[in-house]
What does this fold into?
Amino acid sequence: MAFGPASQLGVALFEDTEPVELWPARSAEEVETVIRAVYRQVLGNAYVMESERLPVPESQLKRGEISVREFVRQVAKSELYRSRFFDNCPRYRAIELNFKHLLGRAPDGYEEMKSHSSILDEGGFDDEIDSYIDSEEYQQAYGENTVPFYRGYKTQPGKKMVGFTHIFQLLRGASSSDLKGNLAGNSPRLNKYVIQETPLAVVPPSGGSQGWAFQDTPLGARARHGVGADAEGKVFRIEVTGYRSNVVNRVSKFRRSNQVYLVPQDQLSKEYQRIHKMGGVIASITPVE
It folds into this structure.
């Protein structure tokens, strides 16, 4: 079951769906499921016409000649992907989409973006795609036979708060598409926010829906971490849902399980790691005016 306000943050379907993996003793139907899942993930939930599919790599996967990872590589290097998410996109938009489609997360910061920009300058498009798929991170997250999936909306050890908040600018629900349907078009979603490593507000649930973990939290539940605002005077409000029970596999819907913290911007990453270690789930991050 999805965590707390997952459906209102647009990630409930991802949370409730098991990763798609290709097993050695697989049926033809299971291979087709994997193929569809790869197209959906790598192409950003964009519709793929029958004439646009890649029959040769599909056939190789069906015969067991290539792994799921190699099929992902073929789709990501295809003219179909390149024409949609590279040739017609500004460089940093293309890079942030590569992170989303191939690693399931937003870039951690400007250094990662700059590193991949250098790969494009030195090796071109194919080397840029290989840099994600051949990475140790890809291997640890997905291995050879699991279809990449979105994971950046979950708290993760060793990752910055910035990347966690930025994924919600790139991922707005299972029905959204990276090809169409957004007023921003092909413009970068993060751009200056990545360069400045500025966390963005995570839109909170609207509240009032019966049974959801996060509704308006009383002032008495607030706590302040750090000493006042940072040098720039910025403070963020973090809502954390109740921790998962060992007995019942769901998040409590009762308000008393909620916690709200007011955290200076320069303490966000530290607080993010603390919440992760304690097993909490971040439901929203909003700036305090």
